[in-house]
Structure formats: C-alpha cells, structure tokens
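Encode chain A's predicted structure.
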Amino acid sequence: MRRNRRVKILATLGPSSSDPEMIEKLFRAGADVFRINMSHSSHDLMRELVARIRAVEEKVKRPISILADLQGPKLRVGKFADGPVILEDGASFVLDADPTPGDINRVHLPHPEILKALQPGHRLLLDDGKIRLLVTECTASRALTRVEVGGKLSDKKGVSVPDSEIALSAMTEKDHKDILAVLDANVDWVALSFVQRPDDIAEVRKIVRGRAGILAKIEKPQAIDRLAEIIELSDALMVARGDLGVEMPLEQVPGLQKRITRAARRAGKPVVVATQMLESMITAPVPTRAEVSDVATAVFEGADAIMLSAESAAGQFPVEAVSTMDKIAQQVEQDSNFRSIIHAQRTDPEATGADAISAAARQIAETLNLAAVVCYTSSGATGLRAARERPSTPVIALSPVVGTARRLALAWGLHCVVSEDANDEEDMVDRACRIAHQEEFAKPGQRVIITAGVPFGTPGSTNMLRIAFVGSDGKSGL
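Encoded structure for chain A:
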C-alpha cells in the first residue's frame, strides 16, 4: 500500500478511535502516525493501544509510527472558598503562596517557581488566556496584579506566564514514569511539552538513550527565543499552535509556523503542524473553507506531517477527518505551484559526503526522470537527508531495522520498507529494483537510483550512488 502524497498524517487516538477496527480504518483512510496523548492515557491503556496499532501494522504489512505525547507540567491556580469569582477590569488581584481558599481579592498559586520568576510588567494569562493580569508588585511569595482583561475565574484554571522563564523542568514525575513505560512499549517518538530551553531536551535524551525519537513541542515564547539550539538537540519539532496562540498574540502564530517549519527543514528535522486543523469536523462531516486553506498552507510550506487532535480522538467523524486531510494534501501536491514553492525553500546540502550524495541523487533522479530514489538507511539518517531534499521523485527508504522504518514514517515523502541489508553490490541493486517494482513505484524498463554505504551494514556511511534498470522480473536489468 502506497500513499499518493508526500506529507504525512498524524492522527490522535481517543474515545472515538481506540478500537482495533477504527485504528485500521484510520490507517486505510490515510493516517501514517498515531498519537497517544499521555494526559488522558493510563499505562495499561497505552500498552493496549500500542498492541492494537502493531496488530494493524502486521495486517497491512506497512511500518506505522507511534508518538507518545507527554503531559508536561500543569500550572493552575488554587481553589476558591465560595465558588467562581468575577474579576473586573482594572481591579487589583493577588496571587500568593497562602494555601487558604481564595476570594474576589486573591487566590493561592501553588507554584513557587512562578512567583520567584515574576517581575513588575510581566503578564499572567489565566484560563487559556481568557483573563489577563499585569504584575505591578511582587515578592517571592506574593504578586499584586492589575486585571487588564477580566472575567469569571474558577478553581484549578490554568496559568500561563509568557514573559517569564520558569525554573521548572519540562518533565514532571508523571512524565518520567510515562517515558519509561512508553519506551518499554517500544513507541517510536516521544513528544515533550513545555519546552523552554535546550536543557529540557538534554534531560529527556539522557533517559531515552536513542530508544525513541525526541520531538520538541514549540508552544512557549521562551522556546522561540532559543529555537536554533532546541532544533539542534531535538530529532523532530511540532508547531503547537494552540498554546502558542495563548502565550503569544494570535496574529503572530502564522508567521511563527512558517519560521519554525523552514528552520526545521533547513536542519533536516521532521516538523509537524498541529492544533485545530479541521476543528469543525469534531461535530460536522465537512470542514470550513478556512480550515481547508489552513491544511493546504502547511502542505505548501513543506511540513513533514499535519496532525489531527480532537477531530480523530473525540470527534463524531474521525475517519472522514483523516480522509478529508488526505484529499486536501493530494490536491495541493498536484497543484502547479507546489513544486516551485517547495523548490524555492530548498537549502544547500551540508558539507558532508552523505549530504552531497543525497542532493546528487535527487538532482539525477529529477533530471533523468527516474522512477524512484531507493536509499538504504540503517540509523535513519540517510532517509532524513533524502526527505530534506524534498525531491519530486518518490523515495523508498529500505531499512533492516524495523524501529528505523517506523520512525521514518513521520518524515516527508519516505515510503518505508523493512528489508534485510544487502550482502554485496549486486544484491543491493537487485533488492532495490525488486522492492521498487513490488511496491509499484517502478515498472520493468524504468530506472531507479540507489544510495547506500560501503562497507554494507555500517551506519552513517552513505558514500555510493548507482543507477539501475528494473528488469522484466523486477530485478536489476543490468
């Protein structure tokens, strides 16, 4: 089974989409990666979902990627003595370290690290940004604020502090337990929430130790400020537009989406665009025109993957949502402007042999109108280099490591196949031609270009290019 598009679709599993039949339907409708939200999943449920996805994988004979999304710190105000309060514009309101239930004048803020980080002039956003406070005076245990945008405030509503870098790890005790559990279940990607600094990624990397890819969710202004360093330490990125839109002015989010996408593409790291892409399809069988344009923009931009959240997890039309996203992506990639936009954003290869070979393979394949680029990739690095080139020619990533093939299922344009490593050059060419034929990318008489590393079986040694004819039996004709 091959997709008729290069961008990948990431579908979140939830109450609407957790049974085996629905997971298979979502895959057949176009989902390439399944997201398990650890905010709502116990370890037992997570293991059950992984088992169901792997059962579908076995049935459809295609590598399927699984992403476990960690909850991250949940910053919330305390409780109120007599129920919700109404904060009036211009009023004074105090957040403090006193655990006594709050009232119209104050409330407990059970996060001393926030109080320590606040300074006069900093903003506090409550309840997803619906209420905005401005700090006028503060100590390490108390912050006096002026209500800039008021409204109803009730128990345990979320707190965002866009102007303050909080001395708080992106990983909570729950996240630490969740990481160990998802690694034990052999998930392919771990998504880290609340990333503020490169150290947050480094902390997770010490635990993961290469057993899964680390995806950094860019959802805080502090992460934007240190984007280059975070990209360098991450394996992939997510443009988490929901939280970005709370902590930053909404009108800045589209520009940030382009900036993050292009930075990730330059670095050759997969980038996912997420949140509210087809939001109306939670309750309607068709999206709005604006949502269609939003999905199309991400595809035109060259994002590796586009994501469905509540649409597939809790919506009434999960299969239709995936199918709609699939149709939009296919149509965009057939548009006459698509190739020129993708080409305009391509960056020069890095000064390594492997990058030069990947760039040369793309150029040769496009110049000679070859049927496919076939790259042997053990660690996945060569596959990601091929995806970074965004070729118009299909790319088949052959890996002897099933975990690598699954992880690469997130990357743009890669059709991943698990295959034994080649024994010698002749076997390499025959295997590449046979698989290109079996997977319906190449017909007898057509040519493919193959990239591999010699000696065989040595990760990170891509140093060879070979053009080969596909013979009548699907093997090499030369």
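The CA atoms of residues 43 and 177 lie 9 Å apart.
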